[in-house]
């Protein structure tokens, strides 16, 4: 493969029907400093960019669970869950997720993206208002759009605005969508207040715990931490690909919600079941998170070190974000860091809710504190150089 990912010998001389338009779009992205490129992570890089917050993707027990599933079931689930794809491993995973989060029922999907689009398209219709926080992840935005529901956007974490939109509604039903821990800013949603508003307005609060599981509520998520697990007005989604170190997603809530999803969620019905290795790995990771709260504490210790070294005010989230003046400077800082062996996330529009580009820094629970300190000094130096040059 060449650098651009084009196979050698591929016929590239003939003009395709969209070539001029594709070139124009690429040039516009380039001019705005918003062109993205796929790059492999060199083996020698320190990874402060991934979402494997607890380092569980390489935990020996998690790897052994995946290896056992591989030996027993092979590499794929071979069919959708409703055909022959349901394995005991999926049911085991769903039980472990219920144990971890305190929710009564769970349904696994092949990604967090599929879980979010699945639950929203299954719940939405013309008589169901979706009230969406302004900062929710693209998978929730897409799910809301695909659901054909009327959608209203509430100002970020503004409980009074959510209450107002619910009060004014003419639709019979309503679903409020938020993240427990927001993926870019790392801030917590006011879940207790939102749950109360939803209870009063007979709406369902759907909480995406993608960045809450393994991180908030002693690892069991913010919903559990606030005593909201099992409440009839609260349901949640998770991804298995972040703190659980595997791949996949799930929707958790009442048995009636699960039954509805099995019968109506298109990304569940028309999708091959989650791979056995991912299901087994995520189940073991969920068990470890539930039984080892010290792992989450180690993560917070590292997050506090990131925050204090880089002067970030928020210290209680796994995700630490450093604002950078322009997208170009953010890319420059990330590239300089990569050349010095440190990978950090680089978030630019449209992936940032407020249009401010950022370096996104995470430090896994299993990284030695002295190693992290040394790496953070490099980050601080590069950020200083880039700010001066800008
Ligand atoms: C808040 C949030 N929800 C959902 C997802 C999608 O999860 P997955 O990567 O498992 O598809 C992500 C991943 O980036 C996320 O950050």
TrEMBL record:
Q: Which GO terms describe its biological process?
A: biotin biosynthetic process
Q: Enumerate the catalysed reactions.
A: 6-carboxyhexanoyl-[ACP] + L-alanine + H(+) = (8S)-8-amino-7-oxononanoate + holo-[ACP] + CO2
Q: What class of enzyme is it?
A: transferase
EC code(s) of this entry: 2.3.1.47
The record's annotation in Pfam families points to: Aminotran_1_2
In what residue span(s) does the Aminotransferase class I/classII large domain sit?
45-378
The protein's required cofactors = pyridoxal 5'-phosphate
Q: By its UniProt entry, which InterPro entries does this protein fall under? A: Aminotrans_II_pyridoxalP_BS, Aminotransferase_I/II_large, AON_synthase_class-II, PyrdxlP-dep_Trfase, PyrdxlP-dep_Trfase_major, PyrdxlP-dep_Trfase_small
Q: Which GO terms describe its molecular function?
A: 8-amino-7-oxononanoate synthase activity; pyridoxal phosphate binding
Question: In which pathway is this protein known to take part?
Answer: Cofactor biosynthesis; biotin biosynthesis
Tell me the keywords, alphabetical order.
Biotin biosynthesis, Pyridoxal phosphate, Transferase
Range of residues in the leader sequence: none
Q: How does it assemble?
A: Homodimer.
Per the record, the similarity remark reads:
Belongs to the class-II pyridoxal-phosphate-dependent aminotransferase family. BioF subfamily.
Protein's UniProt name: 8-amino-7-oxononanoate synthase
